[in-house]
């Protein structure tokens, strides 16, 4: 079973990096490789060994669970029992967040060498953006669904705390991870990965989640400032995505399909597409109480004029990514934590389509949102079940094995 993200597909080949002299080896913090048994023992990392390989990619399970709850609550249809089911999923997402936060804290406390190696690994470091999105996904689900359980005031307080923490972490990751890629990672040409989008899409999540908080800010400059700050984060994320996305497609065209275990990460491209459409629609809803009539009307028009073409491209990429996943499955793709890429990005397309349906009143946009939500729930159930089984069996907490390379089959 291939476990991700400890695979090093995005790193330069070992032969491209000169080996240090035997008498002066680099410190463990300066190289991504896992230390040998002696180093592990000397660093104290034998404590809680099952936490050693719990990387930041595990936050994707929190994101994928929370989006099931919030996307279900935003569907433009009334399904009996859906709200109650979403509430149960929200509770599960909150418990998952606490569990993963605890596990990651234990990872940093007991396995600092591995945690530092993750930061220096271009295949793993981008997943630090998932922490930001996990916090805000649970916070947004708390405000939209959890208030039925904890009350509106408590839900708002929780969302504010998680939004602020997630936004700060996301903005830091959006700077630090690209910085490390330039000065430390130095990925080889042709190794661009959809994973590189993760720290860049986190501010877009802040833009959409911040829109939910705009009406709760006192009218005046504070409310307008939050609205425009959300638009600024929307632009930050969108322009950064437009820089990276061509690299990803160029890698596919010139170097062929991704390794089997990494193929599901193609769905990550849907994240900035669906999330940006969600953001402009939710910001349009919040604009009338924050800015004057001319601007408020312009924001509503922008939501439709931007969202429809972007969702069209999202559907194109969804078809391409699905075809690549089918090909990988036929060639023997097994379960890996990358399966969680089938959840949150698809969920953002659900909320994006739902927002467009709300602003246009078109059934032609309502039913794609429903169909995508059904696919989201199926993907979440599959990824969640396989993850739970992997945790119980120990397969997902064991040392990783290299992914199977893609075969030469082209049909």
Question: Overview of this structure, please?
Answer:
With 411 residues, this protein is mainly α. Helix content is 65%, strand content 0%. It is built from twelve helices and no strands. The chain has helices at 37-42, 59-74, 82-110, 112-119, 129-150, 152-185, 198-213, 221-255, 270-286, 293-330, 344-360, 363-393. Helix 10 runs antiparallel to helix 11 (344-360). It is globular and about 60 Å long.
Tally of individual helices: 12
State the distance separating the first and last CA atoms: 24 Å
* Strand proportion: under 5%
Largest sheet: none
User: Which assembly state applies to the chains in this document?
Assistant: single chain
Shape: globular
- The total count of strands amounts to 0
Helix proportion of residues, in percent?
55-70%
Rg, rounded, reads: 21 Å
- Could you name the ranges where pLDDT drops below 50 across 5 or more consecutive residues? 1-44, 406-411
SSE string, helices as H and strands as E: HHHHHHHHHHHH
Tell me the structural class: mainly alpha
- Mean pLDDT across all amino acids: 86
């Amino acid at each position: 079973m291939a476990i991700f993200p400890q695979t090093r597909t995005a790193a330069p080949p070992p032969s491209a990096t000169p080996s240090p002299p035997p008498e002066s080896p680099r410190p463990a913090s300066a190289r991504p490789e896992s230390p040998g048994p002696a180093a592990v023992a000397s660093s104290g990392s034998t404590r809680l060994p099952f936490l050693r390989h719990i990387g930041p990619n595990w936050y994707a399970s929190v994101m994928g669970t929370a989006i099931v709850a919030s996307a279900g609550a935003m569907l433009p249809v009334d399904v009996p029992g859906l709200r109650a089911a979403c509430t149960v999923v929200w509770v599960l997402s909150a418990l998952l967040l606490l569990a993963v936060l605890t596990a990651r804290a234990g990872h940093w406390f007991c396995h600092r060498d591995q945690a530092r190696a993750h930061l220096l690994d271009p295949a793993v470091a981008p997943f630090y953006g998932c922490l930001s999105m996990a916090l805000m996904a649970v916070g947004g689900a708390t405000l939209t669904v959890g208030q039925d359980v904890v009350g509106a005031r408590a839900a708002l307080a929780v969302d504010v705390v998680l939004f602020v923490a997630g936004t700060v972490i996301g903005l830091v990751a959006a700077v630090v991870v690209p910085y490390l890629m330039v000065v430390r990672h130095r990925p080889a040409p042709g190794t661009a990965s959809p994973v590189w989008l993760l720290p860049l899409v986190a501010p877009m999540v802040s833009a959409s989640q911040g829109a939910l908080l705009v009406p709760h800010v006192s009218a005046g400059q504070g409310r307008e400032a939050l609205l425009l700050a959300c638009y600024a984060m929307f632009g930050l994320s969108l322009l950064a995505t437009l820089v990276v996305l061509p690299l990803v497609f160029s890698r596919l065209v010139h170097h062929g399909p991704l390794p089997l275990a990494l193929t599901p990460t193609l769905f990550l491209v849907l994240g900035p597409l669906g999330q940006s459409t969600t953001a402009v629609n939710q910001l349009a809803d919040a604009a009338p109480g924050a800015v004057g009539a001319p601007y408020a009307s312009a924001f509503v028009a922008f939501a439709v004029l931007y969202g429809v073409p972007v969702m069209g491209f999202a559907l194109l990429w969804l078809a391409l990514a699905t075809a690549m996943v089918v090909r990988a499955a036929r060639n023997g793709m097994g379960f890996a934590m990358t399966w969680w890429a089938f959840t949150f990005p698809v969920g953002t397309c659900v909320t994006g389509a739902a927002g467009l349906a709300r602003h246009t009143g078109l059934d032609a946009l309502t039913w794609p949102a429903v169909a995508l939500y059904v696919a989201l729930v199926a993907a979440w159930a599959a990824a969640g079940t396989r993850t739970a089984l992997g945790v119980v069996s120990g397969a997902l907490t064991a040392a990783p094995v290299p992914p199977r390379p893609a075969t030469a089959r082209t049909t």
